[in-house]
Design a protein that fits this description.
Blueprint lengths: L9 E4 L15 H13 L4 E3 L8 H10 L8 E6 L1 E3 L5 E3 L3 H15 L4 E7 L7 H18 L2 E8 L2 H10 L4 E5 L13 H7 L3 E5 L6 H4 L6 E2 L2 E2 L2 H17 L3 H7 L7 E7 L3 H12 L4 H9 L11
Parallel strand pairs: 1-2, 1-12, 2-3, 3-6, 6-7, 7-8, 8-9, 9-12
Antiparallel strand pairs: 4-5, 10-11
Length: 309
Amino acid sequence: MSIPFALPTFGMGCAPLGGDGGVFGMASDAAADRTVQHALAHGVTFFDTAPLYGSGVSETRLGRALAGVPRDQYQIATKIGVVINPDGSTERSYRRDAVKRSIEESLTRLGVDFVEIAHIHDADPDINLRIALDEAYPVLADFKAQGVIRAIGAGMNYWEPEAEMARNADFDCFLLAGRYTLLEQEPIHEYLPLCLEKSISVFLGGVFNTGILATGSIPEARYQYRPAPPALLEKTRRIEAICARHDVALKAAALQFPLAHPAVRSLVVGMISPTEVDQNLAALHAPIPADFWAELRVEGLIDPAAPTP
C-alpha cells in the first residue's frame, strides 16, 4: 500500500509547538501561530503532530494556527498511543478504546473532521507492538474506511519494529526518526528495501540527528538527545572538511542526502521560528555539486549502497 494522496517533500515537525520555551522551544501560542503561518505561506503544507507533544498543546496550537485555512491547502499527520487524562497527565495505550478516544480527541484539538495520516506512535517491541497490531491497527483501518483518516502509519525512532509491522499488516507509510541520515545509513540494507517492496512511503524525521548535523562538530554537539560521542564528532569533522572544500553547508547536505533514496517520500523537520523555516528551505534548495557526494563516497563516509542526489 502507499499514501493515496500527494504530499510535499518537506514538512514541519510540530513537537516544538508543544513546548514551553524549554527543550521543545515554543514559549507561546503567538510564536506557534507565527511559525505555522509563515511555513504555510512559504509552501510548507504538511504538518506532523501528536498528543504526546505537550500533552495536546501541539495539536491545539496547530489547529488554532490553521483555523480559517481551506482544508484542502494543508495535510496533517497525528499519532495514537498516548491518551491525555483530565488532569493533563498522559498514559500510553494501544487498546481499542484508547485508540478511538485518541483519534476523536485529536480531531477536536486540531479543529478538523479528518486527518490525512494517523501513526502508531513508539510502540515498544517488547510490550506494545503485538497489542498495536492486534488492537490499534484494526481501529485505524475502520477509521480509514470511514474517511476519518486517509492513511495508516507508524512513527518510531528505530527501524526494526517498523519492519516487523510491515511484515504483519498493510501500512501506507512510516515515520522514522534519526536513523537514515548523513551520519548513518543502516536502514538501507533491510528496512528501506522492504518499504519499497511493500510500497510503504517513508517520512524521515531527525535528519540532523537532534543537533550535530545542524550545529556541526562543536564541543556541545548533540546526537540523539545526548552529547555526541567522539567517533561521531570525528566523522562529522571529516564531512565538514569535505563541505568546506566544495563550499557546501553541512545543513544543506544533511537535508538533501536522505531524499535521494526512492523509498523516502518526505522529510519532517522541527522548526521553532519563521527564521528557521527560511533557513531550512534555503538549505533544502541550495545547489550541491556532484563532486561533493562523490568525495563522501570515496572517503567511506556514506554507505556504498546509498543513493545520492
